[in-house]
Amino acid sequence: MTVRPGAGDTPRTCDGGVARAFAFLGKRWNGMLLSSLAGGPAGFAELARALPGISESVLSDRLGELVRVGLVDRTVRQGPPLGVSYELTGPGAALLPVLDALGRWAHENLPAEVDAGRSAGC
User: Fold this and answer.
1) Residues forming beta bridges with residue 88, ordered by sequence position
2) H or E element that contains 77
């Protein structure tokens, strides 16, 4: 049986902001990188160790993207040795409660075998 909307019914749509957020945060590694930076600034190698399975080129691309949209700051420390660190900005830190809530929801509602390989090491 198919239910058709009546003449006065408004068709359902999704929220454009939610769609943009999931398009960005749903890109593999973006949300996990933000979550990894919750503990404070970190260098490239430290982030690579925190996310087993991410290649250096993908890590570099994702960090650049997070910097471009203003969620992460990149700071170059003059050496020797020269160093680069990444840290959440205000808007990036504002996402942490949302990411925490998503993580809690996943622990409580998703079976462990759902997408098991992707969260290895987290």
Assistant:
1) 72
2) strand 72-77
The answer to whether 84 and 64 have CB atoms below 8 angstroms apart is no
Query: If we measure between CA atoms, which residue out of 92, 83, 95 comes closest to residue 42?
Result: 83
Q: Taking a C-beta distance cutoff of 8 angstroms, is the pair 16, 8 a contact?
A: no
**Tokens coding 94:** 């504002």
pLDDT, one tens digit per residue, over 78-101 is 888 889 999 999 999 999 999 999
Q: Does pLDDT of 115 surpass 70? A: no
Number of Cβ atoms within 10 Å of the Cβ of 84 = 12
98 dihedral zone (left: phi>0; alpha: psi -120 to 50; beta): alpha
- The region that residue 42 occupies, defined by phi over 0 for left and psi between -120 and 50 for alpha, beta otherwise, is beta
Q: How many CB atoms lie within 10 A of CB 47?
A: 20
- Helices marked H in 8-120 — which ranges? 16-25, 30-36, 44-50, 56-68, 90-94, 96-109
Sign of the torsion angle spanned by Cα atoms 55, 58, 117, 49: positive
